[in-house]
Amino acid sequence: MTRTVDATQEMAAFLRSRRERLDPRDFGLPPGRRSRRTPGLRREEVAELAGVSIDYIVRLEQARGLRPSVDVVEALARALRLSPGERAYLYDLAKQRPRNTDKLATAAAPPLARLVADLSPLPAMLMNHRYDILAWNGEMARLLLDFDTLPPSQRNSMWLCLMHPKMREFYADRERVVREGIAHLRAAWAAHPEDRALTDLIAEFITRDEEFARLWAERDVKVNGRGHKVLRHPEAGVITVQFEVLMPIEDPDQRLLIYRAADDESQSALDRLSAR
């Protein structure tokens, strides 16, 4: 793991992985005279779909210093049928998307910290792009952990999920939660290549957690702003929550996470925790 993003090498690996996952039959392509020795589309097929030369695709996949234009990035995204998150990731790797050059958020914006408190009794917390927990209300602390008892270096939701002993069995669908978190971190990693703290955090996870290392190598990219989680609370029992992640226009590097009960039993459990 390098200390900074090697965008050329990562783009090469990402393009290869996206090409190899495609099924030629989905494109109506003929089987060809030669059998396919590797899965997915051939380079010449991607080149034809994207309207570029085969040599250009070869040089991209061999990390030979090319920087695709906006038009080429868009053509590759269409040819490889990238999802919106993957498309944004490719734009970031090609350095073709405007960046926020402001200082990275390491503390909660005061209006957002007040909003987190005002959202009670809904559990809520504020994070930055690397999942550092910047602010939280009492309901979130009672649901997850008392963040005040943790050193600042451990106030990171991915670190807690992977490393904290009380959190390893907290999520009923742990692999999905970890997989979605990794897909977000990969997008953040490409969007913030200057963030050494994020790169060091990812390197720590790869070194210390085999599950993270395995899933990171799959190169999934997704920014998930809505969904559900099933939680195993040690006192309140099983709680199913719907979550929503909001990004303030004034502070786009900060993310507001809000939990809501998904059913009556979960609401009753949250009410019992709030009453403590």
Automatic annotation (TrEMBL):
Residues 40-87 form the HTH cro/C1-type domain. SMART domains: HTH_XRE. This is Helix-turn-helix transcriptional regulator. InterPro entries: Cro/C1-type_HTH, Lambda_DNA-bd_dom_sf, MLTR_LBD.
